[in-house]
Amino acid sequence: MIHEFLESFYMKYGSFIPLTESDVLEYLKKKGNSDPSKELDIKREMARYRAGLASAPIAGFMVSYNKHTLGLEDLGTLEEQNWLNDQIINMYGELIMETTQHKVHFFNSFFHKQLVAKGYDGVKRWTKKVDLFSKWLLLFPIHLEIHWSLITVTMATKTISYYDSQGIVFRHTTDNIMKYLQSEAREKQQAAFQKGWKITIIKGIPQQKNDSDCGVFVLEYCRCLSVKQPLLFSQEDMPRIRKRIHKELCDCHLSD
């Protein structure tokens, strides 16, 4: 029965990276076979199965959602201490928008680079079919060199907020976003949004204790803020959160 579950899990997620013991226990419970004394057997069976041929990832495994496609190389960035790549960040942002019925707008991770390189004219087409001023929250993942940060915009209060899991502040990024919003307001003839913006640096938020989890922190900030949940996670939760994100991406929806 365990092998049956492990095989279906492997086919669904392309590898055993997101597998936890509780996944197996939950499956056995559903099947009416939840004797806790068998936990050692479960560990042994999981180890045996993973050590077999199935321990090699499925060649050509792909997840597609809207215009996003993830391969095993992308999903592999969620394993252990790897740095998340843009593809993971952007598809997860798509799932956040779907979950919030597009009341939240998530900007592609390449947006800020393009804004810096080409100015407003270089990015104004990105929102051709999007009315930013009807959203309640905007999310801008910011990738500078080797570090991810997050800028959010609460439209009702015209507040630009900066979140960083190492307490670093790249002030020019919030200025860039404020100028962008003012230009967008002029372009879309939204007089109320052409002035009155305020910038705030958010402190007292969960912080990373290594050099590799900044992308995971950014996605968890985004997830919590978009569904109005408090930021109640920590560095110790990162292995679990990485596995959950992996599953959500393969399932193409956020878990409850």
UniProtKB/TrEMBL annotation:
Residues 68-225 form the Ubiquitin-like protease family profile domain. It is found in: Nucleus, Nucleolus. One of its GO terms (biological process) is proteolysis. The keyword Phosphoprotein does not apply. The keyword Nucleus applies. It holds the Pfam family Peptidase_C48. GO terms for cellular component: nucleolus. InterPro entries: Papain-like_cys_pep_sf (IPR038765), Peptidase_C48_C (IPR003653), SENP3_5_cons_dom (IPR045577). Its main location: nucleus. One of its GO terms (molecular function) is deSUMOylase activity. Keywords: Hydrolase, Nucleus, Protease, Thiol protease, Ubl conjugation pathway. This is SUMO specific peptidase 5. Belongs to the peptidase C48 family. It comes from Cyclopterus lumpus.
